[in-house]
Amino acid sequence: MKKIITTALIAIMAVIIAGAKNKSDMTQNNNGDVIADIKTSMGDIKVKLFGQTPLHRDNFVKLAKEGYYDGVLFHRVIDNFMVQTGDGNSREASKDKMLGGGDPGYTIEAEIRYPELYHKRGVLAAARTADSVNPEKRSSGSQFYIVTGKTFNDSTLAQIEKRHQTTMLQNIFNRLQVENRDSIMALRRNRDREGLDKLRDSLVAQAEAEYAKAPFKIPEDQRQAYKEQGGTPHLDGDYTVFGEVIEGMDVVDKIQKAETDRNDRPLEDIRILSVKIEK
Predict the structure, then answer these.
(1) Cβ 264 vs Cβ 65: under 8 Å
(2) Residue 155 CA to chain centroid, in angstroms?
(3) SS3 content of the chain, % helix, strand, coil (to 5)
(4) 277 with 66: CB under 8 angstroms?
(5) What is the chain's pLDDT, residue by residue, as a tens digit (279 residues)?
(6) Is 215 in a helix, a strand, or coil?
(7) CA distances from 65 to 69, 104, 221, 275 (A)
(8) Which one of 14, 111, 224, 255 is most buried, counting C-beta atoms within 10 A?
């Protein structure tokens, strides 16, 4: 009897240990991605929301469960670029109403994970206002776009890479100017042109040295993706990419081909009917 009980206990313990191991493996393999089903008036789109961008993932899930996206229009559609939706003011919008400003009343902290996440064909990214009023690149609380884009060759990618490099260098220089604002203003008050020139040259040198530590270069795998699949590489590093289409890209392509007015709004309304989060 004792031997039977001991054998039974060993078997039970083996099951418990195996169960714990499986549970541990599941937790370890779970990268936090969430699947959402977007039903539109032109067909269904299934998307994966990335675990690498939890603020945007959780916000999308929250809005979907609240029914926020139900009935909103694809209000901005540009062929070979992207299709945009999520404006809460678009549900009952008349044909002449300007759209693009609707949101839940808040913005989301940027989660720009470049170069890990980039604007290849099929990704979801958060819309936002311009740098001039939004230097932190905070995302709209609800509006997002799906990239369709186009393919690029090496020459065009080199030009885009050069523009990124120039922008990064300029941003560093601008930041240094702000940090040295008091010195600049004092030199201006004293009309010290020579001092201003020396300070400018010093800031330029500092900016170039700082940029040289982490220069911008499009990774080779991204180059191949942009050449073979397409996308919008000029947006990389400026907008939060937080998901990608895993089924229904043909539906996205149909939406991007819709006839539009001068504001890029489809002449015939195309809307999200519902968004469901898979368990």
Answers:
(1) no
(2) 25
(3) 45, 20, 35
(4) no
(5) 344 434 443 343 443 334 433 333 323 336 899 999 999 999 999 999 999 999 999 999 999 999 999 999 999 999 999 999 999 999 999 999 999 999 999 999 999 999 999 999 999 999 999 998 999 999 999 999 999 999 999 999 999 999 999 999 999 999 999 999 999 999 999 999 999 999 999 999 999 999 999 888 999 999 999 999 999 999 999 999 999 999 999 999 999 999 999 999 999 999 999 999 996
(6) coil
(7) 9, 14, 36, 8
(8) 255
Ramachandran bin of 34, using left for φ above 0, alpha for ψ from -120 to 50, beta for the remaining angles: beta
Q: Give the span between the Cα atoms of 254 and 79, in whole angstroms.
A: 10
CA distance 232 to 157: 10
Alpha helices in 30-109 (DSSP H): 54-66
Identify whether the C-beta of residue 83 lies closer than 8 Å to the C-beta of residue 252: yes
